[in-house]
Amino acid sequence: MIRCASQILMGLLVCSTSLGASCDPDRIERLWTKCAACHRLATEKDGASIGPPLDNIMGRAAGTYVGFKYSKAFSQLKFAWNEATLDQFLANPQSMVPETAMAFSGLRRAEDRAELIRWLGGQCKDT
Amino acid sequence: MISRRTVLTAGTLGAGAIALSARAATNGSPSHEPDVIIVGGGFAGLTAARELKRLGQRCLVLEARSRLGGRTFSTSVFGQPEDVGGQWIHWIQPHIWSEVTRYGISLVETPGAATPEKVGVLTDGGLVTQDPAENFAILQRAMSALCSESRELFPQPFAPKLDERCVRLDRLSVQDRLNSLELDPLTRAAITAYVTTNVNAAPRDAGLLDQIHWFARAGHDMERLLQACAQFKMREGTVRLINCLRDDAACDVELSCPVRRIEGSARDVVAISEDGRKFSAKAMIVALPMNCWTDIEWHPGIRPEKLAASRRRHAGSGFELHVLLEGNVGSYMAMAPLPNPINLLYTDKRDARGTVMVGLGTSAVDFDLTDDEAIAREVRRLMPSAKVKAAFAYDWNADPYSKGTWCNYRPGMWTADGPAMRAQEGRIVFAGSDTADGWRGFIDGAVETGLRAARETATVLGLRLNA
Question: How many other CB atoms sit within 10 Å of the CB of residue B438?
């Protein structure tokens, strides 16, 4: 988690200083802890690969990361990831994608989802 | 909280993570038709595959997840290698200990379970801190009363005989027995918290007979039982044993391959995956959690008791929480009965990051496992000076290939459905920790059933076991 957070913070905070709102690195780190046991960044050699890598997710068609074998439920999705779809999914994955293999019942707090989505989308400016 | 500087400079902390992945499995088509299909790539399935390899049989393992290991996996948490799910083993668990010896697996101790310096019990009157010996003594007395029939009913815990006395007791829940005991408030809080953790459910939902069997497995010794549940872990993670088993099994593995239909005949068996592929063999081992049996279409149908038990689900339904605390908080264990969300909390490891505690709780309480503030509040009720830096929990109940945690039978389930749950269905043999006769719900139970399943499959195939 610490490692993954460092790379994302380096990659996203530094590269997107002209973008968006300030993000709280500590909060992002705590949130990423909840993802990093199963997900990693594509640029990492190490890290978990139970789920697909999550960086560059914005704009990607759901269920299409090359090299990851999705569940049938996910591979049949017909939308792209954006702030709205990610928010809906993170709030309750099983509700949005019944039969998803993802073992996560959701981030209940809207502000946590918003912060995580900003960060995944490279919208955090360095603080 | 971890400093920004630490975040930005901790790049090497997770370097071991790549070694944590279970050996890559080929996801192409198997090279030729296998002798045996094994549905489920946890410890039971892979143990069976290894044993059948010794008998000259080639196995194909079909695993729904993108990894092997079943209800346990090795990953990285708080920047360090960590196991999630079933991981604790003990030398009173003979099947897993044999594997430890066979593969030379080194172990680490969980200090909060092996050698706690203090034990906290959360009562209605507040947190009571005890000397461990004092705590174990009250737990031993209470557990001996709760499980008073253990010596009489289970003189051989690995060969339980379910007679009429068992049937009668199996109608009772753990809560029924707790209600009948005269206990002081401290003892009641401690034993209720403890057995709630064991069954990973509200005590009203768990069968008393199964809990009596737990006590018998540990030689009717409370401290030993506690240690059996949480004392030793594999130093290199459960993935080390998974990889050893897979290497020795030399089997084909199809990951991300949920099986949705199983067809059996007098000659062969066919598994049809979610994406429509068909796999056939002369025999099959189904090594899935019992809660997932109803996700498969069975043709012909299997025993109704199996499906009834699967629909009802075993009682185990909860969470395993990992909490990183600031500083070295010592070797500590705390227990709290429902409605507290965390029923057991203990020191797992201490290092430069601080102290990692493991917390166990049930789904009987609505507790947001992603709410760090709520988690910190609950941890502080058990450890008032604790400063929570981060928290992580894996939701096994939301995992469609687990649908729960470790197995504890509901009242009446063991004696009514247990024998049928273990029975063969033509050329199909059933394995998995949920069907173990001994340490059900533990890795030991999974290995036990893998050995049994291989033996039964050999009979199906007409093989000589000592060939």
Answer: 22
